[in-house]
Design brief:
This protein is mostly helical. It is built from 5 helices and no strands. Helix content is 51%, strand content 0%. α3 packs antiparallel against α4. The protein is globular.
Length: 102
């Protein structure tokens, strides 16, 4: 079942995530019920994976979390690519400047 899915605020949906989100109508429906910001968080989380193994795991977890009723990815500080919102101090230090946490 391939269809046009909604993306996020900043990030476009990658093909591998589209494939996972369109495997069942339930998952597709859950995805479409998310806000653009929430969809953006999931996409950014998947895109941020450094290795294919981690990316595959995050895509699988995205589907699982949607089915569990979660609206945002667990353990994710948020998208640092948004221009409509200033990154938090933690995001700036750890994700952008790459400084270790104190």
């Amino acid at each position: 079942m391939k269809s046009k899915l909604s993306g996020g605020l900043v990030h476009e949906l990658p093909t591998d995530l589209i494939d996972a989100l369109t495997e069942t109508t339930e998952v597709t429906s859950l995805w479409e019920q998310l806000t653009p910001i929430a969809r953006n968080e999931f996409i950014c989380w998947v895109e941020d994976a450094k290795q294919n193994k981690a990316r595959t795991r995050r895509i699988k977890r995205t589907v699982e979390e949607l089915l569990e009723g979660q609206k945002r990815p667990c353990c994710w500080a948020g998208c640092i690519h948004r221009t409509d919102k200033k990154p938090s101090k933690w995001q700036q230090a750890v994700l952008i400047d790459k400084k270790p946490k104190d």
